Amino acid sequence: MEMKLGLIRQIDNFGRLSIPSDFREPSRLYPGVSATLFLEEDGSLRIQPHKSICSLCGETLHPEDAVMTIRERKICEDCQEEIRQPKGDI
Ligand SMILES: [Zn+2]
Q: Residue 18 C-alpha to ligand 1 middle, in angstroms?
C-alpha cells in the first residue's frame, strides 16, 4: 500500500483535526464510526476504527453489518440467525 505523506492540517482550539476523505475511506474511518486513538512510544498517533466484536462469537463487527444490540451487547448476523433457528437438539 502506498503511504501518503506531507498533508498539513491545523488542529483547532478544541483539539479537533479534519481528516480528508481520501485518507478516511481506505482506513474505514467513515462518518459516525467510533475511532480508537493510540499514542505510540515515539509520540506519534495512530487512528483506526474502533473494533467492535460480537458478544457471542467474538467476530469483528463492521459498520455495514446488521448488528443487533441486546442489553448493550452487540450480536453479529450469524449469531442472530442461529438464535432464530438453533442448530441441533435442545
Ligand atoms: Zn457472533
A: 34
Cα 75 to ligand 1 centroid, rounded to whole Å? 5
Per-residue pLDDT of the chain (90 residues; tens, 9 = 90+): 556 567 889 999 999 999 888 888 888 888 887 888 999 999 999 998 888 889 999 998 877 788 899 898 999 999 999 999 877 765
- pTM for the whole thing? 0.52
Dihedral angle, C-alpha 15, 16, 20, 24, nearest 10 °: 100
Q: Which residues surround ligand 1, an ion (CB under 5 A)?
A: 54, 56-57, 76, 79
C-alpha cell at 36: 480508537
Residues 80 and 62 in one domain: yes
Between the CA of 25 and the centroid of ligand 1 the distance, in Å, is 25
Q: Which structural domain range is residue 45 located in?
A: 16-50
Looking at the domain assignment, is residue 64 inside a domain?
yes
Q: How many whole angstroms separate alpha carbon 8 and alpha carbon 73? A: 39
